[in-house]
Specification:
By secondary structure, this protein is of the alpha+beta class. Helices cover 37% and strands 20% of the residues. The radius of gyration is 19 Å and the shape is elongated. The structure holds adenosine-5'-triphosphate and magnesium ion. Magnesium ion binds next to helix 1.
Length: 138
């Protein structure tokens, strides 16, 4: 669960959020709706920790992880939907590529294959986390 507690944020005199409290519950799918400039992206940046609110805080259930896509609808035009989601978990994405590069290298050495084995183990340990990949577009 992601919980926003008493989130307050103003830019100068423009108050975007005043004591906002909301819980995002596992299994639900949420959409944030509002006029241009209402504060949707800003709210999601607060949820992700990219910016700090003036007051309040965000809690995420221990062991869960939040990933997000920024509001740039062209950034992933050349990627499949699956890869776009997987990229949200940067560490896992990097490991996948490192081990795949070793397997694809015809000159890979014994040491390289040892390294690939270690990466494979690390990748395997992420199995449970992979199921928790959460992507939000904003
Ligand atoms: N760093 C900042 N400093 C000052 N004002 C900001 C800053 N970031 C955003 N704002 C202002 O806060 C308001 C909310 O911006 P935000 O980008 O969150 O809106 P939005 O709801 O995502 O809009 P859109 O629908 O256009 O994506 C806007 O008026 C914006 O100009
Ligand atoms: Mg926005």
């Amino acid at each position: 669960m992601i919980s926003a507690r008493n989130i307050t944020l103003a830019y100068g005199k423009r108050v975007l959020f005043d004591e906002v409290n909301i819980n995002f519950i596992k299994g639900n799918c949420y959409g944030v709706i509002g006029a241009n400039g209402a504060g949707k992206s800003t709210f999601l940046k607060i949820l992700s920790g990219e910016i700090e609110p003036n007051k309040g805080h965000v809690e995420i259930t221990p062991g869960e992880r939040l990933s997000f896509l920024k509001q740039n609808q062209f950034e992933f035009d050349n990627e499949t939907v699956l890869n776009t989601v997987l990229m949200g978990h940067k560490k896992m994405w990097d490991i996948m590529h490192k081990k795949d590069a070793i397997y694809a290298d015809p000159d890979a050495t014994e040491d390289d294959y040892m390294k690939a084995g270690e990466l494979e183990a690390e990748f395997g340990e992420m199995g449970d986390m992979n199921q928790k990949v959460t992507q939000r577009t904003f």
